[in-house]
Design goal:
One of its GO terms (cellular component) is nucleus. It is found in: Nucleus. 33% of the residues lie in helices and 19% in strands. It has 14 helices and twelve strands. The chain has an eight-stranded mixed β-sheet with strand order 10-11-5-4-1-2-3-12, sandwiched between helices. Strands 6-7-8-9 form a four-stranded antiparallel β-sheet. It starts with 6 loop residues before the first helix and ends in a 5-residue tail after the last strand. Bound molecules: S-adenosylmethionine. S-adenosylmethionine is lined by residues 41, 44-45, 48, 93-95, 98, 114-117, 120, 151-153, 181-183, 186.
């Protein structure tokens, strides 16, 4: 199996620029009126909001159904490896709540989900309440939850007051685990946002707390771009297109933020995304006391964990490689090629866990077991 990193690409990007607009806490000292960045975030939010829930039949008919199941398997493995009974979980960019069942299986104690797309948060709410009609009715989740609609990489209002996520969640923190699945690259449009994302995670995690995530693998994307003649590549289920400004396939290494490309994945994604050079991400995370535990391209991840009996069995149950029945359908080569575009990472917040906090705090009564529309807190656009 191929290694997911290309040396030339990984060494091409320079270190992040100095904190021009940030104080040592990672707080913006002044707010740039960056319409482009805001429009990009809005575009992404509108795209995901517009995606309606699918019925089980529609889902099974998706051209990337096995890839979706493989992604679920990867997220389940990460959760299985790091979540502990009773954990407080922060799910950044939680989407429609597709991971709620995974967290329930891990017997967590509390869940906070935040997403910028109103439609997705509403779907997450109904799914949590057990009202969603797209899946079979299920028993209630065993953990209380809270949902927030907002930009988790920025959090400021139209009137330009800062509404920092770590302040919004002051009473809920510290969290044991923070998860950001298939979304952290949306923070990489500017250095300010990338830093804000990491500052939020660091401020909200307890010492020793874990940050798990999945995102596009910049090294693979850059490598594939350089392998083709034009500025686009893909297969029957996806395409990626870079703009003319990258016709030389060289990047401004002094500023590894805001390197945009358009990404289309059948039945899933159709919006602008940003390259996240992982070694820069690692350096930046380290500045916020988040040290790397591991990073693995999805191919490497599957290779390693599929060998473990408990995860082989989970793969069989999820059916990512087919269920062995019907038409014997399984993950196609084109879907497997898409998996190669992604990586999974785990970071740990520095410091020793405070073993007494569980006995001293009264966080057990947080959140609700039934969430009404009025319970959703909206931040960043209207506050
Ligand atoms: C590919 S989906 C992943 C959803 C979910 N994490 C999962 O794995 O099923 C990406 C999600 O990121 C959310 N998102 C993008 N930018 C965001 C931002 N700035 N703040 C909060 N959520 C954001 C989108 O609305 C969308 O729900």
């Amino acid at each position: 199996m191929k290694r997911g990193y290309e040396e030339s690409a990984s060494t091409s990007f320079g270190p992040p620029q100095s904190r021009r607009k940030l104080d040592p806490q990672g707080d913006a000292l002044f707010l740039e009126d960056d319409e482009t960045t805001r429009n990009l975030a809005r575009k992404v939010a509108d795209h995901y909001s517009a995606r309606t829930n699918q019925t089980l039949e529609e889902r099974e008919a998706s051209p990337i159904i096995h890839l979706k199941k493989l992604n679920n398997w990867i997220k389940s493995v990460l959760i299985h490896l790091y979540a502990r009974r009773g954990d407080f979980v922060l799910d950044l960019a939680c989407g429609k709540g597709g991971d709620l069942i995974k967290w329930d299986k891990a017997k967590i104690g509390y869940y906070v989900g935040i997403d910028i797309a109103e439609g997705s948060i509403e779907d997450c709410r109904t799914r949590y309440n057990g009202d969603a009609d797209h899946h079979q009715r299920r028993k209630k989740f065993t953990f209380p939850a809270r949902l927030i609609c907002g930009d988790c990489f920025e959090c400021r209002s139209r009137r330009k007051f800062l509404v920092r996520l770590d302040k919004v969640l002051e009473d809920d923190a510290p969290f044991d685990i923070c998860s950001c699945q298939f979304a952290l690259h949306y923070s990489w449009s500017t250095e300010t946002r990338a830093r804000r994302a990491l500052a939020n995670v660091s401020a909200l995690l307890r010492p020793g707390g874990i940050f798990i995530g999945t995102m596009p693998d910049a090294n693979v994307i850059v490598k594939k771009l350089r392998e083709v003649e034009g500025l686009a590549f893909g297969n029957s289920v996806y395409w990626i297109r870079f703009g003319e400004e990258y016709s030389e396939k060289k990047f401004r290494f002094s500023n590894p933020f805001g390197i945009k490309y358009n990404f289309h994945l059948e039945d899933a994604v159709d919006c602008p995304e940003c390259i996240v050079p992982f070694h820069v991400f690692k350096l930046l995370a380290d500045e916020y006391d988040l040290e790397l535990v591991f990073v693995k391209n999805f191919h490497e991840f599957v290779d390693e964990y599929f060998k473990k009996p408990e995860f082989t069995e989970l793969m069989r149950r999820l059916g990512a490689l087919g269920d062995g029945n019907k038409d014997n359908s399984t993950l196609s080569q084109d879907e497997w090629d898409v998996a190669y575009l992604y990586l999974a990472f785990v970071l740990r917040k520095r410091g020793q866990p405070d073993r007494t906090h569980r006995n001293n705090d009264n966080r057990g009564n947080k959140g609700q077991m039934q969430i009404s529309k009025g319970d959703i807190r909206y931040v960043s656009s209207e506050d």
